[in-house]
Amino acid sequence: MMDLTDYVRKNEDGFQKLLLEQSTHPLNERCPVARASLAVTMILYDHFEVDKSDLEDIRGYLALNDGKNNDRLFKPLLLQWSRLHTAGLHAFFRMWKASGAQREDFDKVAELVRILIEQVVGQASRTKDVLEVEDDLQEYDAGRLRELQMELLDLSFEDQWGTHLFQVREELKHEALSFVKEQRIRCLLQGSWFTKPMSRNNNAHSRENSYQKRRLYQPWRYAKLSHNRRYLHYADFPEHLPYDPGLEALTEKIDLSTISSVVSNVSAPNDTEPVADPDAVDSPATNSTTSRHGAQVHKPTTKITIYSFVEDIPSSKPESVAGNSTSAVAATTNGEPKEQPILTLFPLNHSLASEWLDGLLMLLNQTPITAETNKLVTLVSEYGLKIRLLNVRLEQMYAGPVPGVGVVPSREGLDEDYYYEI
After folding, report:
1. In the chain, at which end, N or C, are there fewer CB atoms within 10 A of the end residue's CB?
2. Which parts of the sequence belong to the ELMO domain (predicted)?
3. Which residues on neighbouring strands pair with residue 195, listed in sequence order?
């Protein structure tokens, strides 16, 4: 009570104003000032470890005899107890008013004040002025304080149930990975459109050869996985068709068993920006027509290249990577077989690149690598954990209400002044 007496003596006008303001509220919504003062005192008492004996202090000094631990040894803010108590009490009143708390919410507000003092006073350096600490206590964002409280709750929950949650999380992560794998593979079964930039050759060509090359150039490619999930069908088209072609229209196919690896340079979604290129005729990233003479051209920044061992490649000429003058053959040493690109896909956006890259990797029983897919796996597993903790079962969703719920009792034998309370 000495802290409360000191507060009233030093803040007579503010204390009277506080009492007048509290008197205008209903009794259940008034903040118990004396109880709040005692709560702040106990919070400071626990924070500065006032109940710690001198013998324990000496042992702590010997164990922490290091210049790096001076902030833990010496706490000059302890000498400003009265000012810290006043600032903490004002913070208590501020949170009580901001949250619209009632009498039964006292412990919740006190816990918020405890977190606030631990965050502001506990992380203050030895050289920090008490005025700065007072300002931080009064101006600390309530939303951020709420986030800190939820983080602490998660940590305490992990400490208590960490072993059990680890097992459940591993199980749910495996289920989420299987779920996302099926989703990615179904994206491949649905099929997608890709761009096909014209490969440039630095060697000089005659005008006739260049014209012939541009005339035969087909800027769009459609790829689709077969229903048995064994072959990847694709074909090139001169324009983006208004419908998705069927498997019978896709003249080329790749046996997935011959694929040795899938390589990609999937970039951030903001990396695709229009660039002015007066000679650009090979970058239909978002349009079915080619821009020329200074038009804005969206150059694809994501590329997925499918490799196969040389002995597994059919007799037909393998596809060369667009943009290179020579065929990109990845030769390995130590007598191992060589790899050669057999198909290159240029996705229209980052999401499509993530779907196809991870879908192909999962078809080969490999781990997904893109951040978008990993984020989706985490999201599904976390929702599964919440449902598991809430003990929500599928049969409960379709069972309906308990028999008899909501039925109005009969009024037979009752007079007009008697009613059932529902």
Report:
1. C
2. 1-121
3. 220, 346
Strands 192-195 vs 220-225: parallel, antiparallel or unpaired: antiparallel
Closest CA relative to residue 292, chosen from 237, 214, 218, 344 = 214
DSSP designation for 257: G
pLDDT digits (tens, 9 = 90+) for 304-362: 999 998 765 554 444 544 444 334 444 444 566 788 999 999 999 999 999 999 999 99
Kindly report, residue by residue over 66-75, the tens digit of the pLDDT.
Answer: 555 555 566 7
- pLDDT score of 218: 81
The DSSP symbol for 221 reads: E
CA distance 347 to 370: 14
Q: For residue 379, what are its two tokens?
A: 């999201």
pTM of the model: 0.55
3-state secondary structure of 82: helix
Tokens standing for 392? Answer: 């929500």
Q: Which residues of 259-274 are buried (b: 16+ CB within 10 A; e: fewer)?
A: bbebebebeeeeebee
Question: What residues contact residue 33 under an 8 Å CB cut-off, 6+ apart?
Answer: 4, 18, 19, 22
Query: What are the extents of the domains in the chain?
Result: 2-140, 192-369
Q: Tell me how far CA of residue 204 lies from CA of 30, 228, 277, 326, in angstroms.
A: 88, 46, 20, 15
**First-residue to last-residue Cα distance in the chain:** 48
> What b/e sequence results for 334-350 when a residue is b if at least 16 CB atoms lie within 10 Å of its CB, and e otherwise?
eeeeebbbbbbbbbbeb
